[in-house]
Amino acid sequence: MATPKIHLKPLEEDCVDAFIQLSWEEAGQYLEPALRSLNLDLDSFSQAARQTGSLYGVLTGDELPGSCPSGYCWVELRGDTLHLHGLAFYPERRGRGLGGMALELLARQYCDQARVMELGVHDSNRGARRLYERHHFVEVRRRQELGFAILQRDLRPDRFWQAYLAELPADHPHQPLPRPPARSLGDTPALADELVELAVAGKKTATSWLLWERQAHGEQPPRAGDLSIVTDGRGEPRALLETVEAITWPFERVPADFAQDEGEGDRSLAQWREAHWLYFGRVCQKLGREPALDMPVVCERFRVLHPV
Fold first, then answer.
1. pTM higher than 0.85, yes or no?
2. Closest CA to 99 of 139, 66, 67, 127
């Protein structure tokens, strides 16, 4: 089945009740206690959906004339935060990637107005949690008494990505891609600042990762052609990188020419080993593992496509 293209349309009044009904059928078991904690009921929820923020229909283009859309999203702009109150699709429309496309469309549409997109997901809704995490959402706090995690997606990389795409021709192969993941090259703000400056200046053309860390987060090692947005210590995007190659070596066998390409310190293998033993040691501590000479290190070479 071909991947559909979607667009968002302000919801017609006669479909608002359909959104409320679908949301309640999908999530009433945990929406009801959440509303009750706020001294609200279903009527209050319905009224809020009509009067607060923006309610969109998610359209794929193959809906029947006069019918309701394939799904719905309800958002509210609160200062520099875009709060996603609800995202719901009819059962026959699920499993087609529409939820992820709607999230990307919202990020693209609101990245100039908001710094983060925020939502709540119930602990029992594991499928939704996985979806949000695939689309760059991370947990920032919890409502433990209600069983909800509050997730946020930083929209600054989305703004950076849209500015990059605006400089490309319409038929460039990057145009249809979703926003790449954002990352820093160090585990402290100071180190992130130092390393991104080296990369932007062209002195650093490689970086290394502990494979155990990526596996713990359910991530695959980078591959040639992968894109990533590199941020500084404040989380501000500074450059778009393209992976040139990625080879996994045991720590003790990382070659001297790779240490030189990392561009740090005096660029010697001895200095690389000393600094990265400490760095990977901090990573291992978080993972509950012991550093070892044979621990797998992903050695990634990259090129800078779009520096700030």
1. yes
2. 127
